């Protein structure tokens, strides 16, 4: 691809030279566009660079090489070296963008998967069965005791309450008896003193 | 048997307490049946064992079952709501027609999660009190289910049924009347006696429980008389027994009918 492109660029430069006068105006537009593409491409950072940018740079360098003049043998060597460097650059850029594209696809599919998992939290609980409950073991107020234990405690409480009821009644009786015997003692005191 | 102090004066019942509304009441008589009266008179000396009846109070949560019981048994009203856990009970002592008599009042939890615990205490209830909130008509709708659950644990026809609307202080005249009309219709369908009460003001609370106690007492006396009657027939002749038997052989003609009226 790069070689084709480079050849095309060289051919274009030669053609230009030959038909310089005839197609001056027409080429000016085309040339301006390509020059601009190369300038833009050269201004980009390594991460931003695309294979199209490498072709633009290649085209611009080809033109510069044609315009250089001097020893044709040295020009040809330089051209060969440039083509080699551009081929390596092309390989790096297209490899990098392929890897980036793959990572992007992978990221998007992971995002979709995450969204789907977040959107269906019920599915996770359903897998427990319809009559199951999830207990947060870190909750200090979580359910802990069994029905049997509560029943036992209630029964014990009720027995104690019944006993308390009996004891309270008996206490009331003893209090009354105590009060009455006290009264009797007090009433007996004057009769004793009278006898004396 | 343990020592028992005298019953407080406001727990002494000598006249049969009146109903709340004649449209939904269990019986119309205003006096104890003759054989019960005479039996009470003979046992006044205190040779008989203490009689006790079981009352079970059911209904939705937050209708005021505990408040109703606390107003009657402790004469208190707590504004704060505290859900009953499982079941609780109070024992209230009466003296009816000269005979000591206890009501064991079982207060059940209204929360659904405690139903399995509370329902174990429904058995052997002489009285079932279904309670609803006069200010929350839905709780009235649920009383039928509560009654059904309570009846399932008891012999058919063995329990007196009461329907009680609470929080009377919260509803105004017209709304109260409308709800009462609905409730009375419910009560007659449930074969229950209807009462409107307020635990907060105490309105009708003592009257209601006195009525419960008197009805339960009379029925338990009649049952006992029936039993001893049967025993005497087996034993056979004897002047003393015959004399007592005579008074038992002549019950008031309307006694059975009046028990099952409404």
Automatic annotation (TrEMBL), chain A:
<dbReference type="GO" id="GO:0046983">
    <property type="term" value="F:protein dimerization activity"/>
</dbReference>
<dbReference type="GO" id="GO:0015031">
    <property type="term" value="P:protein transport"/>
</dbReference>
<dbReference type="Pfam" id="PF09744">
    <property type="entry name" value="RH1"/>
</dbReference>
<feature type="domain" description="RH1">
    <location>
        <begin position="37"/>
        <end position="120"/>
    </location>
</feature>
<keyword id="KW-0966">Cell projection</keyword>
<feature type="domain" description="RH2">
    <location>
        <begin position="142"/>
        <end position="196"/>
    </location>
</feature>
<keyword id="KW-0813">Transport</keyword>
<dbReference type="Pfam" id="PF11461">
    <property type="entry name" value="RILP"/>
</dbReference>
<dbReference type="GO" id="GO:0060271">
    <property type="term" value="P:cilium assembly"/>
</dbReference>
<feature type="compositionally biased region" description="Acidic residues">
    <location>
        <begin position="13"/>
        <end position="36"/>
    </location>
</feature>
<keyword id="KW-0969">Cilium</keyword>
<dbReference type="GO" id="GO:0036064">
    <property type="term" value="C:ciliary basal body"/>
</dbReference>
<keyword id="KW-0206">Cytoskeleton</keyword>
<feature type="region of interest" description="Disordered">
    <location>
        <begin position="1"/>
        <end position="47"/>
    </location>
</feature>
<dbReference type="InterPro" id="IPR034743">
    <property type="entry name" value="RH1"/>
</dbReference>
<keyword id="KW-0963">Cytoplasm</keyword>
<dbReference type="GO" id="GO:0005829">
    <property type="term" value="C:cytosol"/>
</dbReference>
<dbReference type="GO" id="GO:0051959">
    <property type="term" value="F:dynein light intermediate chain binding"/>
</dbReference>
<dbReference type="InterPro" id="IPR051241">
    <property type="entry name" value="DZIP_RILPL"/>
</dbReference>
<dbReference type="GO" id="GO:0005813">
    <property type="term" value="C:centrosome"/>
</dbReference>
<dbReference type="InterPro" id="IPR021563">
    <property type="entry name" value="RILP_dimer"/>
</dbReference>
<keyword id="KW-0653">Protein transport</keyword>
From TrEMBL, chain B:
<dbReference type="GO" id="GO:0000139">
    <property type="term" value="C:Golgi membrane"/>
</dbReference>
<comment type="similarity">
    <text>Belongs to the small GTPase superfamily. Rab family.</text>
</comment>
<keyword id="KW-0472">Membrane</keyword>
<keyword id="KW-0479">Metal-binding</keyword>
<keyword id="KW-0653">Protein transport</keyword>
<dbReference type="GO" id="GO:0005525">
    <property type="term" value="F:GTP binding"/>
</dbReference>
<comment type="function">
    <text>The small GTPases Rab are key regulators of intracellular membrane trafficking, from the formation of transport vesicles to their fusion with membranes. Rabs cycle between an inactive GDP-bound form and an active GTP-bound form that is able to recruit to membranes different sets of downstream effectors directly responsible for vesicle formation, movement, tethering and fusion.</text>
</comment>
<keyword id="KW-0636">Prenylation</keyword>
<dbReference type="InterPro" id="IPR005225">
    <property type="entry name" value="Small_GTP-bd"/>
</dbReference>
<dbReference type="Pfam" id="PF00071">
    <property type="entry name" value="Ras"/>
</dbReference>
<dbReference type="GO" id="GO:0015031">
    <property type="term" value="P:protein transport"/>
</dbReference>
<keyword id="KW-0378">Hydrolase</keyword>
<keyword id="KW-0460">Magnesium</keyword>
<keyword id="KW-0813">Transport</keyword>
<keyword id="KW-0547">Nucleotide-binding</keyword>
<keyword id="KW-0333">Golgi apparatus</keyword>
<dbReference type="GO" id="GO:0003925">
    <property type="term" value="F:G protein activity"/>
</dbReference>
<dbReference type="GO" id="GO:0046872">
    <property type="term" value="F:metal ion binding"/>
</dbReference>
<protein>
    <recommendedName>
        <fullName>Ras-related protein Rab-36</fullName>
        <ecNumber>3.6.5.2</ecNumber>
    </recommendedName>
</protein>
<dbReference type="InterPro" id="IPR001806">
    <property type="entry name" value="Small_GTPase"/>
</dbReference>
<dbReference type="InterPro" id="IPR050227">
    <property type="entry name" value="Rab"/>
</dbReference>
<dbReference type="InterPro" id="IPR027417">
    <property type="entry name" value="P-loop_NTPase"/>
</dbReference>
